[in-house]
Amino acid sequence: MLDIKFVRENPQIVKEAMEKRGAQVRLDEFLSLDEERRRKLAEVEQLKNNRNVVSKEIGLLKKEGKNADELVEQMGQVGEKIKHLDEEVKQIDEKSNEIIMGIPNMPHASLPIGLNESYNREERKWGEPRKFAYEPKAHWDLGESLNILDFERGAKVTGARFAFYKGLGARLERALINFMLDIHTGEHGYTEVIPPFMVNRNSMIGTGQLPKFEEDMFRISNSEYFLIPTAEVPVTNLYREEILEEKDLPILHCAYSPCFRAEAGAHGRDTRGLIRQHQFNKVELVKFAHPDNSYEELEKLTNNAEKILQLLELPYRVITLATGDIGFSSAKTYDIEVWLPSFNTYREISSCSNFEDFQARRANIRYRDAKGKPRFVHTINGSGLAVGRTTSAIMENFQQEDGSIKVPKVLQHYMGGVEFIRT
RNA sequence: GGAGAGAUGGCCGAGUGGCCGAAGGCGGUCGCCUGCUAAGCGAUUAUACGGGCUAAUACCCGUAUCGAGGGUUCAAAUCCCUCUCUCUCCGCCA
């Protein structure tokens, strides 16, 4: 969430930022609620002060054996007033909280301004999309003919947008997970964690999925737990309500997890293949950084994700999302898009964001500065990478005319020396 | 799942109705002392919110906070209720 004091003191700046995002927010309503809240708060605190003072007097009088009935009677009435005012303040709090929790983050000044993805800015390209002498096949066709992906039985056993990986397909997915984790832990300095794959409501609020996007989540029906949409949620919440040491920053974690997304509103989009599933694997990178250098850390994290694609020899490009295209909690996001031959375009395979203190404020993740004062950390995360989409990209980019798939060199020893996946 | 114990500041730990934002210790910070080091002495050391004063996140005042939420009371860390979590024993289990 945004800093309430900042919103109070700079409503115009917030308003303009929200316009750049194309976000509808009830800012004026919030400001007037905020003012009312402070008025009522001053009033009730005054009464509480009175009660505290008089209660002490009553204690002293009773100790001396004197009569305090009149004061007790008075304070009884004050207590009633306090109860009512407290209730009013609580209701105002709930209303204004609902509004502020629904206000997205302020976009960083370096973003291209524009209300949709057409304004996104391409930063760089790596690798050359391969020229095919034939029409390249889609990964779902390759997967079915090689008998390494099974969408029909996925749909039978669970439903639409669920799939089985089989044989060397499963092996490839698993090889990628291990490969990515090995690079990030061994060469990029991240500490691996295996998080819970379900989290409670507070964790979902901490990273910004709730309260606004509940319909995109899978909720466990007989409990208050949610299936994680990304390891970002449990890993960022690792340090929720904690105060970290400044000298420990940045803290770097990577995590493999399956991700569960209801994909509400995605009907009809990417209905075939591994691109948009209700369950997919992902290796996530998460950083807890010092506010002074969080943007450098974002660059590094993005490079760490790119490194995986480079090692796999997959062509990609990096784009900076425009103000109208970044996610709710993000201040700045780079999307890494991998080349997919059958789509004849680049598709998102990683999204790397700096949330600044937006998540840290919601989740109350702080560090102690040189003066000993707690400050909010900046949180940064990105996919390193979406594994299912990486598998798809490998299948499509490394397909051979005979329908087989060449295994990228760096993966071969993870595949037990297999060089080609063929029937 | 059954029985019991517990949750207090950065950490450990005392505190069963008012003088408790909370003893004591550890750790941290500042100062003193000691020709290094170790030790010693003194002081200081929670957070959020609101108000005042400001260049100020500095200072002053107030309110709240002793796992969370509710209740009793003039007054709750302390009494009552509900929930969450932790530990011990038993059962079950990959």
What can you see in these coordinates?
The protein has 13 helices and 18 strands. It is an alpha+beta fold. β14 and β15 form a beta hairpin. α3 (27-63) packs antiparallel against α4 (69-101), α5 (139-145) crosses α12 (387-397) and α7 packs across α12. The protein is 41% helix and 21% strand. The model has no long low-confidence stretch (mean pLDDT 94). It has an 8-stranded mixed β-sheet with strand order 1-11-12-13-16-10-9-4. It has a 3-stranded antiparallel β-sheet with strand order 5-7-6. The two termini are 52 Å apart. The structure holds one RNA strand of 94 nucleotides.
Provide the β-strand percentage band: 15-25%
Unreliable segments of 5+ consecutive residues: none
Structural class computed from helices and strand pairing: alpha+beta
The helix count comes to 13
Major β-sheet annotation: 8 strands, mixed
Helix content: 40-55%
Q: Secondary structure elements and their pairing?
A:
Elements: H1 4-9, H2 11-21, H3 27-63, H4 69-101, E1 121-126, H5 139-145, E2 149-150, H6 151-157, E3 164-165, H7 167-186, E4 191-193, E5 198-199, H8 201-207, E6 218-219, E7 226-227, H9 232-236, E8 242-245, E9 251-260, E10 279-289, H10 294-311, E11 316-320, E12 332-340, E13 345-354, H11 358-363, E14 365-368, E15 374-376, E16 378-386, H12 387-397, E17 405-406, H13 409-412, E18 420-421
Parallel strand pairs: 4-9, 8-14
Antiparallel strand pairs: 1-11, 2-3, 5-7, 6-7, 9-10, 10-16, 11-12, 12-13, 13-16, 14-15, 17-18
Helix pairs in contact: 3-4, 5-12, 7-12
The protein binds one RNA strand of 94 nucleotides through helix 3 and helix 4.
